[in-house]
Amino acid sequence: MTSKKIITGVGLLLGIFLFSCGGVKTPAGQPPGAEYLPLRFASGWERTPEVRVFVGDSLYEYIDGGAELYHMYKFIDVTVGDYAGDAGEIVADLYRFAGPEMAYGMYTTLRPEGPEAVPLGVEGFSAGPTLIFVRGDYLVNIIGYDEAAATAAAVKSLAGAIDSLLPGPADKPAMFSLFPQTTIIEHTEKMYAASFLGREYLSMIYTMDFIQDADTITLFLADDDSGEKFTRWSEQTGQNRTAAIPTADLPYDGGNSFVIVDGYYGNVVAGLKNGKLAGIIGYKSEQTGFLTEWLHAIPQMEIQQ
User: Fold this and answer.
1) Taking the model in full, what pTM does it have?
2) Which single residue of 3, 134, 148, 292 has CA 20 to 30 Å from 183?
3) Which residue, of 136, 165, 194, is where some domain finishes?
4) Domain that holds residue 110
């Protein structure tokens, strides 16, 4: 039997197909992650005995398209539980990644603009019969097979039950604490495992959007102790680099900064600050004070572990 489920990501609907067989179980008998899938919940909803697990490249057997993105975020395995009740059927997927940063980063690729937020885990949202949230190393994707009100209520009930069982922090990655905490546009935090602005070597880049003078700007930040990311990017800016927008007065370390004029993103400023690659997308001279204040504050802030 092949059933269809839908998740929402970056404002688009992605079709994902479930397979009734396949997967890998641990030799001990209980699949990894099964302890986070309750045997029953609410009234009349029960999990089928079989719990399926798809490890590593076997993810391609479970989802039709998009597996490459999951692997970019260091996907480990997905544990799948099927539930049935008088109101219908539900499936719960527990995607496990190599650390909370990777799980949260993958979540941000699925979160639509202006999501219908739900107070689960670190963060979550619902879209029709689907509810997605992230906690610790896990991205949880729960799907009802119909849009009936009873099914939607059961999806939320199951999500709450799983959230209470999952281990791991319910906090966003610590890097986000190094961004300004004012004028933030809610639910815009993102983490790019690779290929930020189309450049593969720009990995583990954290971004947040802000409102400044009625403009939307994006700040980005990444660890770059060696300066390798900055150096490679600086060397490849080519004809897009400009001196028309000066950066000498910005408090980057040793004047290590540059500006790119991009036809899609606008002006992009990047530089090194205290072992970090830090910059802004959509830069205008009016944002100089905001950018300067942030750069000065970076070494003064402590990451909360």
Assistant:
1) 0.86
2) 134
3) 165
4) 2-165
